[in-house]
DNA sequence: GTGAAAGCGCTAACAC
DNA sequence: GTGTTAGCGCTTTCAC
């Protein structure tokens, strides 16, 4: 066992520096001026004692926790993880610490526990990743004692939100596919928020605008392997020549499933995804997709939250990011049928 | 603006329930018995006021924060994200909240700031992801006022650690490749911790044991695109028939680079990775790799930390997980040269 | 079982 | 500028 050295407190520092406790507090918070002489002594004492202020005591006394809570259903999937990274980075730059509260699904009891966990740290603000039903449900049951920002998902009334304009990008993608001679474009979704996500809306709009048939939506899970299963089925269907997937992982799984079923991408079937996962451009064939800047989404979420925390009026209720279509090898002109 | 309802405090609850503040505290912590009648009244008051205890006040009064800090260089890359998910899950089950403190690199000032951030919340324990130089440097400059556990990486003296036995798995992989007729196996590393990682050690050991030549190590970054760049170079080198990569992302990038350079995997060159990334089995060809259970690593880290926090003696200094080699399509018998 | 009193480590308000 | 005094919302003695 290494020896455990007890943490020094502010009064240890004050005593050692020969000043009062509030004076130490003043040099720590550097808002009220302190004479250069004392400042130096205090700084030296802090150094010598390896003093670190207790966040708990500060929070209690100042009623400001310098904490932000993230509520999310998952922390390790690409879009989520990148968003969280963006949040943490922006929060750290603004001198806030982040806690994560995981809400596994939209079961009321699970949601309640996650909300309790998120609020137990007295965060000054909360960011909810409304990418899926779990986040969506959480947003609807959040207390109003603290500013909240929603990230992505369906439009939520009364809550500031940062959105990615998925719909326009999906339209552009589908329109492009139709122009390549595809009769229609099939669509595979990941579990949707209450309502319909922008990808699906944009997909349908583009088909209708072009007078193309609107096929039944195929539902996948978040697991890339479910894309593979769908691919094996679709491989047998000669009607299918182009597929838009709800995310890249599903699209990558789909491509594998199509190969399993003896079809070639893009010669037989074109495939497009959504997200621009770091591996998508490396796939053979590289995947046509929509680049979403998740870390920017997180950063904008923090900026919006900080604004809501300081301003009386909520300056800017809705922010929208424009994603970009990346045409790559997985999509091509339709083969003659 | 929605109306902001002020958070109820414990004395609000006490007053409403007609009991003293400590009594409310007792029902909250359910350690000292409280009469059924009062218990009910208190619970009702809590419900009615939507009361949530202040973690800061609890921490201050009890000197127990119920917080664990994770220090990591990155939160969104696969192995890291999965480990963090495993930690969060296990911590939540033990009723601990997790904060993440990001240390971008091993610059002393950066490390110092991350350590300060990690300790500012008075965590009861700290978990360091020593996957890379940044985590490694952090581990070496951590105060000893609180139990610490290191996850993966090089063996750190005096600190409980959970390791994955990469070395044995790498040996098995390389041995298998040699048995398939490859003259030797090249090796691409990701940025290593101080010293050498187990993958490299195992790779070298297997080559030496078989009397095979030990090629120069090729260094990549964490970016999968760097694997692609390496692949384009190696494609031109007829000596190269088998490559072991430090992780799957690099292996996937490498395969793409080899394809760019006109080589086929596995017919011309066998490729193996490390991690079993969720997309590796979907690749064409599917990637031979070593399955590492990162979320289990995180869970074991929490278990070890909780043990170190409660026990006087550090029960079990070192825990080792056995990863499993997954033979798949990207490796094959060496072609005749 | 239960309440009164003290105090955790800090910041805020006030006097000087 | 600086020290003194309160008090943040809880838990922890300690009587009863």
From TrEMBL, chains A, B:
Keywords: DNA-binding, Transcription, Transcription regulation
A GO molecular-function annotation: transcription cis-regulatory region binding
InterPro entries: HTH_LacI, LacI/GalR-like_sensor, Lambda_DNA-bd_dom_sf, Peripla_BP_I
Start and end residues of each HTH lacI-type domain: 8-62
Keyword DNA-binding: yes
Protein name, as recorded: LacI family transcriptional regulator
Pfam (any one): Peripla_BP_3
Signal peptide boundaries: none
Domain of life: Bacteria
KW Iron (keyword) present: no
């Amino acid at each position: 066992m290494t020896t455990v050295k007890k943490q020094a407190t502010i009064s240890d520092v004050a005593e050692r520096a020969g000043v009062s406790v509030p004076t130490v507090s003043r040099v720590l918070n550097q808002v009220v001026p302190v004479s250069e002489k004392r400042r130096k002594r205090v700084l030296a004492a802090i150094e010598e004692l390896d003093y670190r202020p207790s966040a708990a005591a500060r929070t209690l006394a100042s009623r400001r926790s310098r904490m932000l809570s993230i509520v999310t259903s998952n922390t390790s999937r690409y879009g989520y993880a990148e968003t969280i990274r963006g949040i943490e980075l922006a929060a750290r730059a603004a001198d806030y610490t982040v806690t994560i509260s995981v809400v596994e699904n939209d079961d009321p009891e699970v949601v309640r526990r996650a909300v309790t966990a998120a609020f137990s740290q007295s965060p000054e603000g909360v960011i909810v990743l409304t990418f899926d039903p779990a986040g969506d449900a959480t947003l609807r049951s959040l207390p109003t004692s603290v500013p909240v920002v929603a990230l992505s998902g369906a439009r939520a009334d009364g809550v500031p939100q940062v959105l990615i304009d998925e719909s326009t990008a999906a339209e552009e993608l589908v329109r492009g596919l139709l122009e390549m001679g595809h009769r229609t474009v099939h669509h595979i979704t990941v579990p949707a928020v209450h309502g319909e996500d922008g990808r699906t809306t944009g997909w349908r709009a583009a088909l209708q605008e072009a007078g193309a048939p609107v096929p039944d939506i195929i539902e996948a899970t978040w697991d890339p392997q479910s894309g593979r299963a769908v691919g094996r089925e679709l491989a047998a269907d000669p009607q299918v020549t182009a597929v838009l997937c709800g995310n890249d992982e599903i699209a990558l799984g789909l491509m594998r499933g199509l190969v399993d079923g003896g079809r070639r991408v893009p010669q037989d079937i074109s495939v497009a995804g959504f997200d621009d996962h770091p591996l998508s451009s490396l796939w053979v064939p590289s995947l046509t997709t929509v680049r979403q800047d998740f870390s920017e989404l997180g950063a904008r979420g923090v900026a919006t939250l900080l604004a809501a925390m300081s301003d009386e009026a909520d300056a800017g209720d809705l922010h929208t990011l424009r994603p970009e279509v990346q045409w790559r090898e997985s999509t091509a002109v339709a083969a003659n049928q």
